[in-house]
Queue: 4 jobs
Job 1
Amino acid sequence: MIATLIALVLTALAAPAIISWLGRRGFYLLAAAPAAAMVGVIVEWPRAGGSPRLESIHWVPALHMDIDLRMDTLSAIMSILVLGVGALVLCYCAEYFDNDDSPSGPRIRRRVAGFGAQMVAFTGAMFGLVVSDNMIVLYIFWEATTVLSFLLVGFYAQRATSRRAATQALLVTTAGGLAMLAGIVILGERAGSYLLSDVIANPPTGTAVTVAVVLVLIGALSKSAIVPFHFWLPGAMAAPTPVSAYLHAAAMVKAGIFLVARLAPGFGDLMAWQISVVGLGMLTMVLGGWRSLREFDLKLILAFGTVSQLGFLMVLVGTGDANVALAGVAMLVAHALFKASLFMVVGVIDHSTGTRDVRKLARLGSTAPSLAVIAAVASASMAGLPITLGFVGKEAALTSLLDVDGFDGWQGPVSTAVVVFGSILTMAYTTRFLWGAFGRKVRREPSAAVARMHHPSVAFIAPAGILAALGVAAGFVAGPLGSLFEPYAETLPTNGHELEHLALWHGFTLPLLLTVIVIVGGVGTFVVLRRRRRRLGFHTPPLGNADRIYDAVLRGADTVSLALTRVTQRGSLPLTQGVIMVTTIVVPTVALLIGARNRLDLNGFDSFAQVVIGGIMIAAAIATTVLRNRLAAALVVGVTGYGCGMIFAFYGAPDLALTQFLVETLTLVIFVLVLRKLPAEAEARHSTGFKPLRALIGLAFGALLVVIGLYAAGARTTTPVADDLPKAAYELGNGANAVNVLLVDIRAWDTLGEVSVLLVAATGVASMVFRHRRFGAAPRVADAARFHGADPDAVDDMPTARTTWLRGSELRDPRHRSMVLEATTRLIFPTMVVASIYFFFAGHNAPGGGFAGGLTMGMALVLRYLAGGRYELGEAIPVDAGRILGLGLALSVGTALASVFAGAPALSSATIELTLPVLGDIKLVTALFFDLGVYLIVVGLVLDVLRSLGARLDIEETSTTAGRASAGADATGMGARP
């Protein structure tokens, strides 16, 4: 299982390169990974059907987040569906997307390459979800499918409908996922274990557990589009058809069904469970079938039909009876086969005719008979007609539901009646689908769309044909299949009845009579609605428009947020800061007054130098509040930062002092770059009088922080853990620099979170500056020719063909050049690069590390930019900053995962002893690779900031200056006319 996950992840990473190399045919190569994984699951099936196969990797044991995987019968069934259908859909993609030899081929190929990677990644996430035994890990895979679904549904990002559909699906399923996370935490804490197998084997009880189960069910119901969350699924039909055939037929929407089936043995007897799962499932089955009969788009007919079928499945797997659950598993497999096949058929129709509207399709059955046969076979299984697996599952469902005796004997008859009525609607919309897509419709000639269609290739319709054929073949081997499914059914109670076996023929029974009623009633419903649609008012939604309710909820949330921020966020910095400070004052003060307080141990200062530095910092902070010149204020603020670094140094913390000095210097550079776009002087204050309230809040805030610091410092009653850090750093992290070992080993999780925040910050800054395109390297000297004639700083003699130092400086206006700075840069830049590398390698045992080394390299880039301008920045590092950031994060995360795959907790380090020529014996700590990721992220951050706030703003300023000069020239010319 772990090997399968790794293979799928690697395939997803390689997918863009494969499709860029092979074009659309690369999808066949991508399909090999899930196909091979499916074969592996089938080979292991006997073991999965008996005792479950377990695999585990230590990840974060303290947070109950070990990667515990479990392959039992239910997981094996879902894995085969996820992997097998996924492989066929990838093959289908090879024919679905447009020919990449067209004029727009390169652009299409780039988009399709990303699509392929997302599809394979989704397959991996879905596989991880169904084999996860740890509930926290299951939730992580659950949310991964949500994010990937958002990307796949929004594939046509240029279309407003696609963006709305993707956002709607994301919001609905994420909201349900958050509720589910809360339920998982409560359930895990009450059960004393986060393993699903443990929770189901020994289910906890109590009101809190009932609440937790309901919260988990909210996530399951939202994922599987059960009322009231059903509306997102039809909207998601804006996605490409392969997405609908996979996510919305065999994979993502089955996640909620799977989770309910997994929890049913432990909690299926709860009243809240029966009401929410069975009750809402029946309502969904009827509502979805009714809505399906109203649509004219073939894809929407199937979409609402899917909603109906998901409700049916929820009833079966949620009833909590062994026989009903066995029928539910059979229907789960049947639905994946026939619905994925039918979605593929719709995709072929749309691709070949250019329409999915049943009013524009006539005589397609005679024009494309093979496609019609495939659709008819798959539709027969959807309608539950004999010899198909759908018929076997539906017969088993009707038989077992009649024997359910919950709710004083009412549950069985009521459930059976609702299922029969829902099945009549299913038969009706199945007939309408076939008639709408392939019927003659009283026409002697094909419709215009059908007449000009291009016939699909065999490879295009083969995946749909394979799935449809499997749906029929499975009906003939229902007995052997049932014996494979029964180990799951045996985990539920039989309620006094023997466990029935799946069979294609049970004789003339009451369920068979009900099937005849369903067939006759469904065809009759179709005929009546076709002829008297308007007269019956069938165009009116039965329970209102869910999309409008969704929009109303979003508008309500906007209204509430605007009303709230109108009071708390009025655009006034003093008000916002005052709210924060007052909150910070009140809450800790109350805690100090009502809580126990330890004795204060006051120590004013350790040396007179600290008093001097502290006084300077206080004076600088006060001066900042009265200075009107923005640059002067920024420089004075920097004094407080440098003073803090000096205090670190006096306390014997050279590593902290070095980092503080570097960060403060870089911050000042960023301040200066931003201040170029602002007036030199701040706006004059409207009121210069003394404000007692503000002064009181400021003094109270400062005094409270001092008091809290004193109490916190004196709160220790035992020896602080910091005393053991130097020894732990050497023994556990094999390093003498406790600060660096703490960052990259002992507390590496914190560091990973912090560098992720740095990456987000860099992306945010660039997104505000680059409004249209995010990525791209800084311009180089060779790019200056594109701007020549429009850039007044450009010179006639382009230095593109000469090898010179600081080539970019030759493109600057001589008035803006500093020969002293250029000469200094020539001397200092190589030294700073060497110092950066030294800090990086020496940081494990001496002051430095990846963060300090990256900041030093960043300062070297700042120097090159200040000396040579934006073109020199491109010459210094001609690489896209986004790639450096991504590589750094990938390296840090990869180091964390490497230890997991080695059988140790995440971010564990190891020491490798090597003997190298010249260098001799050396010890290489694997935390160095994590630190290298930190180094690259810091360098990428500085480069991105310089590119955004430096080079980009330079270009905008140059364009503005050129525009003004051009306008001035035009005005002068006009004024010279007689």
Note: The beta strands are 53-60, 65-71, 911-916, 920-925.
Job 2
Amino acid sequence: MRGTALSAASATEIVSYIMVGLTAQGKIASWDAAAEALTGFAAQDVTGGDIERLLVAPTPESHRAIAALRAGFAARFGSLIRCKDGGFVAVEIEAKARGDAPGAISLRDLTAERLAAGASRHAAERLKLALGAAAIGAYEIDLSTQRYQLDGRAAAMWGRDPGESVCFATLADQVLDEDRPSAEAALAAASDPAGDGSYATEFRIRRHSDGVLRWLSLRGRTFFENGRPVSRIGVMLDVTQNRRLEEDNAHLAAIVETTGDAIYSLTLDGAVKSWNPAAERMFGVASQEMIGKAETALTPAELQGEAGTLFDAAKAGAIVRRETKRLRRDGSSFDVLLSIAPMRGRNGETVAAISVLARDISHEKRVLAQLEQANARMAQQTAELDAVFEALNVPVTVFNRDVAIARTNAAARAVWGVTPDMPQPLPFEEVAAQLSVRNSAGETIDPAALSARRALAGESVAAQHYQITSPSGLKHDFEAAELPLIVDGAITGAVAVWHDVTEARRRDDQASILLRELSHRSKNLLSVIESILRQSAKGSVSKDDFVARFSDRLRALASSHDLLAKTNSLSVSMTDLIFSQVGHHWEPGQRRIVLSGLGVRLKPDAAQMIGMALHELSTNAAKYGALSNATGRVSIGWRVDHEVESEPMFVLNWVERGGPPVQAPERAGFGTTVIQRVAGQSLRGTASLAYPEEGVAWTLRAPRSSVIDATQQDAPRAERIRSPALEKLQALWINLYRDGKLPRLDDLAIDEIEPQDHLIVADVDNAINPPAVHFVSIGKALVERMGLRRECQDIEVSETEILGSEDGAYRRCIRSARPAYEYAYFNLTQGRSFFFERLLLPLSDDGQSISRIIGMASFDDSASAGAN
């Protein structure tokens, strides 16, 4: 539009006042060139027209003014007039009073003034908006009064009220002492009229209102009159946050420059944007070489895909950590831990770049691999030590500082009477309540003595003797050693190691008894030999007959004594004694001699007397009785008769059948004397000898206490099962024993029982009496240890070929239909001797009658070494 197209300067140059003539009726009478220039209308276009037609959007004010003007009165008003091109111009219309005479009006162009006023208002508004957007405060100071006028934002920065007039000294007092000199210097320089009066300074204040520390930045100008500063105006900005960011950035920059990790950034196109010194050292590439290049140049070919995936994930806003490989300048690869994260723009949302932190973990990986190998070795060694610890036949207990049992091995648990699944730690008081403890003097002591309390106090204890009766009733003699466990100079617990000296003490006691017994037995032996000598001489018909009789009887006597030496014991198995005297008449498989009796052991004197009687009986049977032909049989049976009013009696029977007809001898010789009188009287009992035609019958009756060694009736040493394999086999049998029915062989899953080479499997023949067993299999270890034949053979229950010396275990198993266990010492020929632990279990096909026996044996060679 025309009016709006003119600048304020050009309008002023055209005309300042334009005169328009009016008729007495207020019509336009004249229109000069200036009016035409201003509006574009020619004189002929407007002459005779009403001035109101030129006005744009008349207002009530303009209507009143035009009415006054038509009436000849003075009028003045501002309005917009139309231009020929459709635009408009702002003018001031003024007319003086003229009455009824023609007159004139003046038009003053207001375009320039209005443009200037609008520009001023816009500038002020823009400044206000800019100050508000930037949180900038404005201030003025009258230097003659030294008082500040602060706007709202500036007042808030100083902790003052908006519009408050503040003394300069009040504000200056809040500036920190260390910053005041530089601020005062800047203001002083701005007060010099030789300069332009501008100033800029930054300082810290501590507001009086709340004690908060802030950074302020001031910019302003000093105004002068007559060469003197009179006022200042300026703006101020709180730059505390910026200052803190600068400090943080400085810290971050220092970290980036000095860290040992490679830190670099990438553009969204994957080009390197920054590259710190650690990256130069790690990759061997200088910053100026790397910036602008793609990071993929340092990625192995096989990992390019992975690198792209990680980069895309970071671009999508994810933070990624990944162990991978990168290349050095020389092409060698190394292990790195990458931390990749997006760098966001000012809005906090748009990803502007990608930051990468790369840590060389090659050394850590090598160390970790070495640690894993070391841990594996340690785990293996720990497992080995745990296995050794558990397998030790020496009880070992570890106590913690609270005197609780922290760890035990199997041997110790057997003493404590606890199971492997015991609570850990186990309060010692719970265990001690079940124990009975004696010291070396045999005095009962508090079980708390076993709690390693002296070791926990720092004392090392050695060779402390205790006799412990465990919850199962077994007695053990121990030599205890206790040591404190010290870690970093502090006692953390204690370990107690107990050496079981029960056997050693038993052997010592046995040796002492043997020495006393040797003296007693030597005297008795001399008396017996003297008696044999006299009786043999009395009944002999010649010198040679005397020598033969005397020698046979001495050999029989020696056999009885040999048994004591072979078994290293003060007692003799009844079956062993029988075979020592009649074994030379034994014919395997023919069952001419049948034994029947309990597994008992005889006292030495009883073995000597009964051995001599058996020798005489077997000699007579071989010469004249049942063993002198091919059809005769001898039955030897023994029992303990409890059905008497006094002490139980030991009864031994010798019965011959199937031999030649028997006649009583015409005279009683030494043998008959031994059989009838000596054997009975020496044992405080009686012996009877009868000669029925069908065969000789001899019976010995003597008090059980005179014959049987009750302390070793079943075996030299009866105690708990030691072997874990035997315990497992017995537990398996017990689990299968239900409602009084015996398990079957198939129920035991015999192929899964270990160790296989220690197993015994036998069939039981109940058709004969006593029952016989047929060995289906005997483990290789037993065969080799016992020196047996591998092939199966029928053997009667009582034979000594049943895995060594027979002590009644098979008969007990068959008679009771229950497991039979023994722990015995065997002294075989050719120097072979060992402690032998055996468990026999009855099995049945129908759940009632015993049809099979399965057994397992274990050899205690450590004890054997001590015995030998």
Note: The chain is about 35% helix and 30% strand.
Job 3
Amino acid sequence: MGVFVLKVHPRRTSAERAQHSPLLVRRPDHDIDLWVPFSWVRCLFSIFSLTLLITDIPRSGFGTINFEELYPTVAPNTVVNYGPYEYSVVRLSKNDSAQPVRASCDDEAMDLVPLWSYKYDTLSIPSRAMATHLNVSTYPRCVLYDGDCADDLAPDVAFTMLDDLVTSLKNNYFMAPAPRPPLEFFTQTNWIDRLHHIIYRWFDIVYLDLHTHHVHYYDITETQPVEMCQPFPRTSRRRLSARPKFCEFGIPWKMAHPLDLTASTRRRYDLHDHIAIRMALLRKAHPDLQFDLTVIFTHYTYTSAPKSTRTRVPLQAYFSAEDQEITTWIRGQHCDEHGAHCATVLFDDYRYERLYTENAADQLILLTAVLRGLAQFYMWLRVAFLWFGCFHARSEELKYRNVPFTKRFMVAWSTFFRIPAHVIIYGSWLPVLGYAVAHYIDCGLFHLLYYYMWSPSDGVAGLGFWEYVRALSVQMRNAWVLSMFVKLFVLFQGLMLQPRNGETTHLHGVLGIRGFVISTSSALSVFAQYRVPSFRDTNIMAMELLPQPAVGHHSRIARDLDMPTEFGFRYEVEILIASFSVVMTVAALWHLIVATKRCALRQRQSSLGVVFARSYYVPLSVQTLVPLTCMDVFWKTGRSQVETFSSELLSVLRHAKSSRRSRGSVMSTPRSVVSIGRLASMLTAFEHPDCRLCQQTKAAYWQQSQGCVPHEFILDVQARSPRVSSIIRLVNIALMSDPLELLHLSTGNYELFIVQLRRSATRVSRNPPSPYLPPLSLDAYAMYMTDSGRDTALVQSVRSCSLPWATLIECG
């Protein structure tokens, strides 16, 4: 291509326009079609990524998920999002002490008793705690996390350990006459259940849970029938303290009749009635046995902001989840006439569990909807303006000015898909900030929601395909949080670290993150809540036995256990760090494997980087007309790799370069010779003394992985090759078509300088040197004159708002 001119009309008064003619400013040679290769892989990836981007709101909604639409509502802003479940674990029986123990569940025979229910399930925590505290010798040590167990327990082992535990409880705490006060205690246990728990355990980070347990014991021979929640006179303080806490539930717990397995009837029974009915059925089936009932109630409340700190956590959606677990043990015994000696022949283990959540999502749903709506609308504008910018810029080129519209339309799309999708998605501040703040507000509710989606009652994860897609769509919103951190890092690195180390942005490039790292780390984070039974660890770390309760004492203790949840923004940061570390580790291993190959492949891998990479093609408009953070995502361009050439080709290049210099001008040559000339310019860049990155032998790994990146000296506008000018022009099109940047360029009144090389600094030519416009401020212009090493003269200063957009994308 030849040298063209652009007419620049700075804003002047009528008198000034009469005295001054338009300035002729040099436009560098460029050809995007020739020098920026089109990649079908990048095109297809961009189509997929941008489709997800522009359909974010239709796919995942504006704001917080409405829990009332997903779960049964039991009170205002309160739903039951886990359960309620009521199920039989096992029924153990034998005819007499000499007969083997038979196991069954819902009248179906079992050969073995599942170990999960007595070692890993959270409902097993109180029984293991009391077995340890009372030193029940028949309790298997492996069940208490002292050694390894098989996957199941023999029926006789389960029968003996449970029977001896109830006997120890009765003898130590429940020998007083009825009604007996409950036994209350705290437990602190490990909570290893999900994939992210396993990962953080490698770094000695262990999650702990704190539970309150209440144990009630009823001797059926003394209470006929079982009436745990019967009303007592207010003066009966002892009786009131003996009532189970679930009798005081503000939210009713209803269920079908124990014999109505299909729940075909509409009648529902309260929890205590359900226990009494089961007790009555067993007594009717075994009238010759004497029965006792042990009820263990476990209570645990976790909230996004405890009451003591709720005002210190601004703009976070509040929720409080209360986990309630009840284990009932009904024991049938053959006793002598005086009841002094009894032999247990029947043991029934039946459990209830549910979790209900109170949330205040409706208080912030409007704010999150506005933030996500504005961000989504901005992204629509971003994509539309970028395509129109590509169309407008390419239509201004001489070779496309007179071609049909359909041709220019296709060229615009071709140019559009030469721009990396991650630069479009994560380059702008406004949508990243909007999405990140909205995710900060309600991420805790989404974590809670998908935590229980990955928590079926059988202990195995089982999400459907569309549930997984929705979970992935919502969870991947944390990509905006990671992008925000990257922007802050680039801003700090550009404003603080580079000036301190004597580096400049345009010479040393902008250190950014590879686009795939953000999306891959975000996609991996959805598996943080992946659940496998072998992950589970609920080993008891501490136990505290509480004194006999006074009136209402146990209720006060339960209210004090208002523990902060692991879910929320802190959890989001933790899983992002974990997934980001996984991506970095895999990428580093891949890089290490590739580095063992031949030198050429190693150099190619080094130049592209692993996780962090430097974008060396940084327009001069960065930090002047557009912010530095627009370059936070690495822009992969096809840089020269002359180190892969053979020695014979290098000698040919050197000869071709010396021959062209001896002629003093570029002559008309065949196409093959032109290609040799193009490679010769690449060799010049490779040998350029300003490739200072090659001397950075002590750089950190994420810098060192780039290796010595051969690149043309980008600061000298006059010396740029057509390839560099083409890439810079494409980068400018992408950055300056951002809606906020367009507003900034049209209203900003920034002073720029038109400069011109003196005749002594140019080659001998009949034409005088043309002025050119580096978009630099006054300070940057002074630094530019020093670094370029050229004898330049200031022609005129202009205001950025007076220049057409097509001019600005040419001059940077």
Note: The first helix runs from residue 14 to 19.
Job 4
Amino acid sequence: MERALAQDRVRLLIADDVGLGKTLEAGLITSELALRGRADRILVVTTRAMLTQFQKEFWTRFSIPLSRLDSAAIRRMRNKIPAHYNVFDQFDRSIVSIDTLKRDNQIRDALKHSYWDLIIIDEAHNAAERKSAAGSNSQRAELAQLLSRRTDSLLLLTATPHDGSQESFASLITMLDPTRVPDPTRLHRSDIGDLVVRRFRSSPEVVVDIGREVPKRELFPRRFPISPEEEVAYQSIAELHLDLDAQETRGRAIDLFRTTIAKAIFSSPAACHETLERRIRGIENGTARGTEADRDRLRALADQVVAIDTAAFSKYQELLQLLRQLRWNGKSTRDRLVIFSERIATVAWLAERLREDLNLAPDQVARVDGGSVEADVRTQEVIEAFGQERSPIRILIASDMASEGLNLHFQCHRLIHFDLPWSLLRFQQRNGRIDRYGQDRPPQISYFVGESAHPKVRQMWVLEKLVAKDEAAQAGVGDPAVFLGAGDAEGEEAVVAEAIASGIGAEAFERQMDERAADAVTQMSLDDEFAALFGDYADPAPALIGASTDDGPPRLFKDTFTYATAMIERLSRPEENAFPEMPGIFPADRLIRITIPADMRSRDGFGYASEGAVDGRFMPEEAVGPGGRIELTDQARVINQAISDAKAQERAWPTVQFLWDGHPILDWFADRASTFFPEHSAPVASLVGRLLPGEVAVILHGAIPNANGAPVVDLWAAMIRSPDGMVRIEDMGTFLARTRLAEDTPSRPLEDLTAAMAAIPISVDRFQTHLVELRRARETDIQRDLEAVLDRLAALETRFRAQLTLDLGDVPVSDVSMSPVEKRRLTIRRKREQEIDKLFNDWTEWFERTRKMVADPNPHVDVKAVFVG
């Protein structure tokens, strides 16, 4: 958080290892920005599976309400939102999936006409430019680039920030601050170090801090001989030659159909049979490549695969044997299983067979595979239920759509890889669902290794070596990307496919991985810049800009609970009638119980919330208990217990909420307090015995904004007019201490308001003069800091223009005698020059707008109260 807040414009890549709490880090930064008035409008972009979990974490831990724009919400709103209406104007703080932004034209178009204080992109590696990027990946990258330009602050969260290339890393840095990347192929840590936080599980500070909190995981390989029926099918695949593969022009094993078949049979006969039948039908109806000879070979193979029935499916039989050895019967609520498989057909087959073979009820086995139209809603429901103690779910069977970010560890410490992924990164991501911060039992991870009598089949078994390299990464290698040299799941799959297709065998494949790792270590030792760029970013944060050692602004009430108690007691009076039921206040327990008042309920005309539900600006609908009741407390241990208890109840969201300065109910209190007195008026009270006789104190609040309207100077003060007419300024801390205003303060009615009224104009005038003096004093420091920022931008711009000359040459004196190629190069150069001009003009203008104060000779001042001695 210190690294983020030290920046003028908060832009940070949080790239900590899997399971180390990136969402919590983002929440801490967001809540601090919100308290500083710099995060009124927030957009979170995440995966479909993560919508509810992210929303819940931000609410329960940080009191940040996010409106969840999932497919169900968008469907409800679809017919009620006019075509020209921007949906993001309705929601200041929202969360949406990247897939929704890709698919929904109306939502995507709204992005271009919206602006936020803060955008958070979760699983940001999905939006990075990758060597293997195509189709949806490149579309995600375009969306992320657009979002990066529509916000002041930006947080990118990912455990895999690059694919081993500087270009992929540079694409994320460019989203954060494009002025830092004149050449994407030549990044330097000294240019970007303040933009990145990255720690591995082997990082010393992580070992010290997290090692005590996360039990060490246990890996259990399950070796078994494959059946005769499987031997036949596997050998046929190992020896299969297809005309369509011979015609493949891309030259990569991953693109061969034989590789696709091998990947499918490694998952299950059901997945393999589905793959074969789809291709056979495609060949027959002319929609897929392949000759008649290919069709016949595939048909023969399909017959062999069909012969692998449940009894002959040795891996499945080994799974049943594993469960018998664990004495697992599905009765314990805290002994649940997560089973991962890459193929949806395998997920579906397992769900059906396990229900029958383990004698489980239909609702005890759930699946998450993204195969339905509204997969986001169904996935959120299943994941939430899996974490609840009272839920009947005992086995969750998931495809890799559930491998990123999700918390599956609340009631589960056993994970089974029914098929091993062809990617080390994917293997780590899967394991991270239960091997993560908050796990209270040693994670137990099982995987299967089949053994064959045929040499060609044995040469295909290389995946176990990925597990060994994951263990090496856990033990201290750090970045696991060094073993396969790809850095993203798709690239790693291509490397593994080459090893399987070539038949080099497991030992040779392991040697290749060790050689890559050794080369990376050598490069790091020889190239300090390489080591610095792709290594640990756990350097101490720079000093906070404007950091001070005081305890913040003075407070009339000693804490938020006392203030909330006073406000609720006032709002409970008959003349206010704010609550439908009398609130309960329990000082000994530091607990407040209220029923949501009418003006906190939704009047949504766009179909997002049901009529009468709580307004999403205050809290998510799921956070409200039965009857519209909520509980508030300032005791962190009570909140932590409530979050834990919610997992054992039918409700997944705790109704007890953390009462602190960041809770939205304080905004509601402020709105209601503004109605206590008529507009353009202020209270007048007697403070006899607390002020000197004849002394008048005028409490004022004033601010001087920047060009964006955000306050740069924000001041409360007491203007004290003495009986002789002199006016002096007194800071609020001194005034509150001198008058003991926080104590019970009896006030006598004032019959004569002459002195009070006379003190106001002169106090306001003197306070405005003081604000102008403050502005002038601050302007010198601000201008000095601004000049330093602009000098830095100018130096960066010089590097951009120098790089442009290196790439495209100098601008010619004349273009009369230029060749077509030279003219094309000149056109590209001029376009690039315009882009550089716009980039640095935009960033310069942003700093000037946010740093410079409005030079108003009469700053706006509010009279808050008048006290007479």
Note: The chain is about 45% helix and 15% strand.
